[in-house]
Design brief:
alpha+beta; 3 strands
């Protein structure tokens, strides 16, 4: 179902009830679809097995196998 932004604001409780009972609800602004309201179950289904941000960062490559030694070279002089 399509909801205009103003109606969605005024009838937010009904919008949520419709999303739970009927499925995704589209909200429009000036005739253009801008957001979709979905139930939490539908949202979780859509994002599937994607890790959260912390899991994403901690699942990166093992850095201990990389050569991260700094060189002992002295920086070059720059003429001013």
């Amino acid at each position: 179902m399509l909801w205009e932004m103003q109606d969605a604001r005024q009838k937010f409780s009904k919008l949520v009830k419709c999303a739970l009972a009927e499925g995704p609800q589209t909200v429009t602004r000036h005739g253009d679809a801008v957001v979709v309201v979905v139930s939490i179950q539908e949202y979780r289904r859509l994002i599937g097995g994607k890790p959260d941000f912390k899991e994403f960062l901690t699942s990166g490559p093992d850095l201990s196998s990389l050569d991260l030694e700094r060189t002992a070279d002295v920086p070059r002089e720059i003429a001013l």
